[in-house]
Amino acid sequence: MKRMLKIGNVLYIMSIDRLGRDYTGIFNEWNDITKNIKADIVVLDMPLLDTRKYADKMGTFVSDLVLQVLSFVADKERENIKKRQAQGIASAKAQGKHLGRPKASITVEFENAYKQWKAGEITGVQAMEQAGMTKATFYRKVKEYEAS
Question: How many other C-beta atoms can be found within 10 angstroms of the C-beta atom of residue 61?
Fold first, then answer.
């Protein structure tokens, strides 16, 4: 998106945290867009962050100050989310809950589809459909099945 921006363009963003994941990232992106590319930014949920309206020294100072505060808040919120997520994962693991996508297993449907496929009765795509697997999963299970 930044490659398409030119001098005088206006970039509308919903929230300041759309510019980056942390304080430094947000601040660097803001400066790159406003100072290097010389495009304007309008943050829709924060009217003070509109580089078109506040182009004088005082407006720039206020915008930079608000940007720094909001970037700091966004960074802290991200850290808090990561901490809560880690606590939730640790709690789930302590309770013995399985996390992540369920593992595909070799089922009766897979075995039947595999045998028909190997006998040349059906195509690989048909075998995958019968087994209810994606291409990558099917061939991974084929290797596993043949090794056992």
Answer: 11
